[in-house]
Amino acid sequence: MQIISDNQLIINEKFCNFAPMELRQLKYFLRVADTLNFSTAAKELFITQSTLSQQILQLERDLDQPLFMRNSHEVTLTEAGQTLVPLARETLQAAENCQLRLDELKNLMGGELNIGVTFSFTSIMAETLTAFLRQYPHVKVNVTQSTMADLMERLSHHEFDFVLAFKPTQSNPRIESHILFYHRLAAIVNDRHSLVGRESLTLDELQRYDLALPRKGTQARNAFERNIAGTDYHYRIKVEMNTVYLLFRLARESNYVTVLSESTVVGEDGLHAIPISDTDTPENVMQGCIHLLKGAYVKNSTREFVRMLGESTSVLRNKIL
Q1: In this predicted model, which residue has the larger pLDDT, 33 or 282?
Q2: Is it the case that residue 171 has pLDDT exceeding 70?
Q3: Is residue 244 over pLDDT 70?
Q4: Is this model's pTM higher than 0.70 or not?
Q5: In the 8-state DSSP scheme, what is residue 174?
Q6: What sign has the CA pseudo-torsion 31, 41, 156, 143?
Q7: Beta strands in the chain (DSSP E)
Q8: Angstrom distance (rounded) from CA 24 to CA 243
Q9: Residue-level pLDDT at 110
Q10: With 50 as the cut, is the pLDDT of residue 53 above it?
Q11: pLDDT for residue 277 is more than 90
């Protein structure tokens, strides 16, 4: 039997009569609830701190109870504030879904499509992006390239329609991940390298070469570290960087070997991917996923882009399992 507190009953009753102005207040409330800092929340919302404070106070007056405890050192949520957080998210998401549905009825395959993509997948997405824009010229596509952590955070705040990235090691209860393809780790070299022509390479053999690796914390580096954990291999790591473009340039212009997902070099001239054979097991391969916000309305343009991506040659030739 579910127990509902008096605070929750009061908030549920008040929620039935929210107007557009209160929707904005809910957005402000959630920013403060997420940051627990009025100054930070105001900057992220591009409003003044005094405006933010006034709107929160008005919301508290409307609900007839405090949502935050404030003192000179910290901001914390009251019981009412904690109760309001999930309800506010549901309300804002429902309002956004309503608007998106109406927009699609009016524009059909128009409007905007906002995509987040990690550095590893920009090349693999290029084929679909070109085909999609050719077929649906009335859709404006906004693509943002960043780290997985940044993209997932921004997806949770409704900044993207979907994110294309590897499956994270830790799940987020607000995000659902749909596996699109599987990728192996590979040694990436230029077309003049002595390794060109090899069908595969082992982690043991990799010790013989100077390595330029992505920095720790990136998905490819995490996968590499998992595979060498417990071994006594010693690698000649000469360079570490978090920019794939510079890794590509270094690999093209030198004999350095880098380790990335095979998909990273799709469409990259002058570079070859040689699979690392002893990482080619179901538990070690990296899962390329479409990440969506749970409960959010999925636009027709999102569905079509994902369909086209799944049927693209870049994806089909990387479905290794």
Answers
A1: 33
A2: yes
A3: yes
A4: no
A5: T
A6: positive
A7: 68-70, 75-77, 112-117, 140-145, 162-166, 175-183, 185-190, 210-214, 236-241, 258-261, 271-275, 286-293
A8: 37
A9: 64
A10: yes
A11: no
Do the Cβ atoms of 167 and 289 come closer than 8 Å?
Answer: yes
CA-based nearest residue to 109, from 142, 128, 132, 143: 132
Q: Which two tokens stand for residue 111?
A: 């409007």
Max CA separation in the chain (angstroms): 73
Q: How far is Cα 131 from Cα 1, in angstroms, rounded to an integer? A: 53
Q: What was the pLDDT predicted at 78?
A: 94
Whether pLDDT at 188 is above 80? yes
Residues of the chain above pLDDT 90, percent: 43
E strand or H helix at 320: none
Please state the φ and ψ torsions of residue 307, each to the nearest 5 degrees. Answer: -60, -45
| Residues 257 and 208 sit within 8 Å (Cβ to Cβ) | no
- What are the two backbone dihedrals, phi and then psi, of residue 147, each rounded to the nearest 5 degrees? -75, 160
Return the percent helix, strand and coil in the chain, to nearest 5.
45, 20, 30
Task: Give the dihedral sign, CA 277/281/286/290.
Answer: positive
Write 78-82 long-range contacts (CB < 8 A, 24+).
79/5, 79/7, 80/7, 80/10, 80/11, 81/29, 81/33
Q: Are 291 and 177 in contact (CB under 8 A)?
A: yes
> What is the mean pLDDT of the segment spanning 213-226?
84
Q: Are strands 112-117 and 140-145 parallel, antiparallel or unpaired?
A: parallel
Give the DSSP letter string of 223-256.
Answer: HHHHHHTT-----EEEEEES-HHHHHHHHHHSS-
Q: Is the pLDDT of residue 3 over 90?
A: no
Q: Sign of the C-alpha dihedral, residues 100, 102, 108, 110?
A: negative
Order across the sheet with 162-166: list the strands: 140-145, 112-117, 162-166, 286-293, 175-183
CB count in 10 Å sphere of residue 30:
17
Q: How does DSSP assign 138-157, residue by residue?
A: TSEEEEEE--HHHHHHHHHT
- CA–CA separation, 235 and 206 (whole Å): 7
Neighbours of 310 (CB within 10 A): 15
Cα separation of 100 and 24, whole Å? 17
